[in-house]
Design a protein that fits this description.
This protein has helices at about 65-80, 105-120, 130-140, 155-160, 170-185, 200-215, 235-245, 255-265, 280-290, 310-320, 330-340; strands spanning about 50-55, 85-90, 90-100, 125, 145-150, 165, 190-195, 220-225, 245-250, 270-275, 295. It is α/β, with parallel strands linked by helices.
C-alpha cells in the first residue's frame, strides 16, 4: 500500500462543525418618533477557530516519534492557516492544533482522549501506538469524534467496526506478509526466531510475520517475549543464538530494537535483524551504533524519499523544526488534510 504526499481529495468524516450564525433584532420605532439614526457599519467578524487534536507520546522512550507526528500535523495546520484557512460556506475557518501526550500508555491514552473530547476538537490526528489508539477509539466512537491515525497498524483497530476510526497506513497483516516475503526471498532465510515486546503493535506484527513465515516454508525455531521498557536482552539473545536462525524478527519499537541490535553484535550473532515500521528511524541508527547494519525494516506506508512530494516535505520540515523527519510525520501531515 502506498500513497502520495499531496493534499487528499475531500473525505467525508463524521465530525460536526458547530458554527453559529450571528444575528440581530430590530424594534420598530414609534410612529411619531423621529427616524432612528442609521446603524454603524458592522465590523468584520474575526475568523472562527476550529480545534483539531493531535495525540501521541510526547514524553518517554519514543517521544521522538510522537514529536515527529505532532510536527507533521503542525506543519499542515500552519500551511492551511497561512493560505487563508478553510472556507465553509461564507465562513473562513482557521485551525488550532490542540496537542496531548499519551506517553505510549493505554491508561494515559484514554485520559487524553477524554480531554480532547471535552475540549471540543472537531477531529483528531492520532494516536501513534496501536496500544493507545485501540482503547481511545472506543471513546471517540461514543463521542462521534473522528480520528485518523498516521501510524497505528494493528489489525484489531479497524476490525472493531467504529465509523469514526481511520488510518493512512497499511495494517500488520499486510506488513507481516511483506516481511515474510522479504525473509524468504531476498534474504533466502530457512529458519527464523521471533521476539516481540507484548504490546498490541509488537505482538500483532510478530504474530502476522510468524503466520506468513510458516506459509512460506520457513522454520520458526523459537518465539520469545520481552517488554517495551526493557534494555537488557542478553538472556533472550543467548538462547536465540543457540538456535542459529537465519533471521531474528523483532516486533517492537526503535527504543528497544537499538540496544537489541547492539547486543546481538556483541554476542557474535550472524542473524539478520528484521523489524517493522516502529524501528525504521534515524533514532534506531543512533541507538544501535555500528550494529545498525544488521537490521532490515519495513514501512507501513511509502517511505518519504519515494513520495511524489517527499523531497519538498523533508526540506520544509527541516526548515521549520531544525530536525530530520523520523518516520510518521508525512502521514500525520496528510491526516490533517484528510480531516480538512
Amino acid at each position: 500500500m502506498s500513497y502520495q504526499l499531496i493534499r487528499f481529495a475531500p473525505v467525508a468524516i463524521a465530525a460536526a462543525l458547530a458554527l453559529t450564525a450571528c444575528g440581530r433584532q430590530e424594534t420598530p420605532a414609534p410612529k411619531a418618533a423621529a427616524p432612528a439614526p442609521a446603524p454603524a457599519p458592522a465590523k468584520a467578524a474575526a475568523p472562527d477557530v476550529v480545534k483539531v487534536g493531535h495525540v501521541g507520546p510526547i514524553s518517554g522512550a519514543i517521544a521522538h516519534l510522537g514529536k515527529d507526528n505532532e510536527n507533521g500535523a503542525r506543519l499542515a495546520v500552519e500551511e492551511i492557516n497561512a493560505a487563508g484557512g478553510v472556507k465553509l460556506g461564507d465562513k473562513t475557518v482557521k485551525l488550532e492544533l490542540v496537542t496531548g501526550d499519551d506517553k505510549a500508555d493505554p491508561k494515559d491514552g484514554t485520559l487524553v482522549a477524554q480531554k480532547m473530547i471535552d475540549e471540543g476538537v472537531v477531529a483528531l490526528v492520532g494516536h501513534l501506538n496501536s496500544g493507545t489508539t485501540i482503547p481511545a477509539s472506543k471513546l471517540y466512537s461514543d463521542a462521534n469524534l473522528s480520528h485518523v491515525s498516521p501510524s497505528a497498524t494493528a489489525v484489531k483497530l479497524t476490525e472493531q467496526g467504529f465509523k469514526t476510526t481511520f488510518r493512512v497506513v497499511a495494517r500488520d497483516d499486510k506488513q507481516g506478509a511483506a516481511l515474510a516475503n522479504f525473509a524468504s526471498g531476498p534474504l533466502k532465510a530457512k529458519s527464523v526466531a521471533v521476539i516481540d515486546d507484548r504490546t498490541p503493535y509488537g505482538q500483532g506484527l510478530a504474530d502476522e510475520f510468524e503466520k506468513f513465515a510458516k506459509e512460506k516454508g520457513m522454520k520458526v525455531v523459537g518465539r520469545e517475549f520481552t517488554n517495551d521498557k526493557a534494555s537488557d536482552f542478553n538472556a533472550i539473545l543467548t538462547k536465540v543464538r543457540s538456535m542459529k536462525p537465519d533471521v531474528v524478527m523483532y516486533g517492537g519499537m526503535d527504543a528497544t530494537a537499538g540496544p537489541m541490535a547492539k547486543q546481538m553484535k556483541q554476542l557474535g550473532m550472524k542473524s539478520t535483524l528484521l523489524a517493522g515500521d516502529g524501528v525504521c528511524s534515524p533514532e534506531f541508527i543512533k541507538l544501535a551504533g555500528n550494529a545498525a547494519d544488521i537490521m532490515k525494516c519495513s514501512n507501513a506506508g511509502e517511505a518519504v524519499e519515494k513520495l511524489a512530494k517527499g523531497a519538498d516535505f523533508v526540506a520544509k520540515y527541516k526548515k521549520r523544526f531544525n530536525t530530520d523527519v523520523q518516520v510518521y510525520s508525512p502521514y500525520s501531515y496528510d491526516a490533517v488534510f484528510v480531516i480538512v
